[in-house]
Design goal:
This protein is mainly alpha-helical and 216 residues long. It has a domain of 129 residues. It has a two-stranded antiparallel ribbon. It has a two-stranded antiparallel ribbon with strand order 3-4. The longest helix is centred in the first third of the chain and has 45 residues. The chain is elongated.
Amino acid sequence: MMVLNSPEMGQVNNAIEDFGSLSQKRFEKVLYNDAIPMLVDIIMSEYDLDLVSAVTSRDSRTNPVFYRSTFLERLEDFEFVSEQEKGLLLRTPDMENFDFSGRLKIIENILDGTAGVYVEVDEGQYVQMYNRQPRRTDVFDPDVPKKQRMYLLRLTEDVNNRLRRNNIKRIKFPFSNSPPIDIFSAADQFVESDMGRWIQYTIEDAKRDFVAKYRR
């Protein structure tokens, strides 16, 4: 029977810690260099396929193409990786943890689904129709000049008549009567299918560095 004395056990423990540290560093590298860029590409592909390509009206001011660059910036700033007590945690965006504040409220509205038919009017048109300022304070795009701020009105006979009387072109909200749209689940599926490959690559990469280090 072989018995390891305290110094030898210390070397073994140090080696185990080294391998764990190497593995975490390699895994972090895989996530940031490979996994996260792929996740961003997948979600943006879903955004373009399910949102941008769904709009055919040239008049719509809610076309997701106008908000694409802001969405991409928020996605690239999303905290995909965080360090936990037991190691690295990878998370993907969803409707609860993604930042839809500011001008992305319209995208959140679209993804949540819309029951009923709505028309788009700006603030000037609203005043023209109702002779008063909009009472609603949560505009979809607060970053644009006040007169260009856009509101959605449920299309009723009264709204239709007001549009006609004021010679305002009726622009239908492209996502009227739309169910919820999921642009995030494809990223979850990608993680589930590729996580094993990432871990295997990490272990093999860390093992090569570990062997090279302790061969000296």
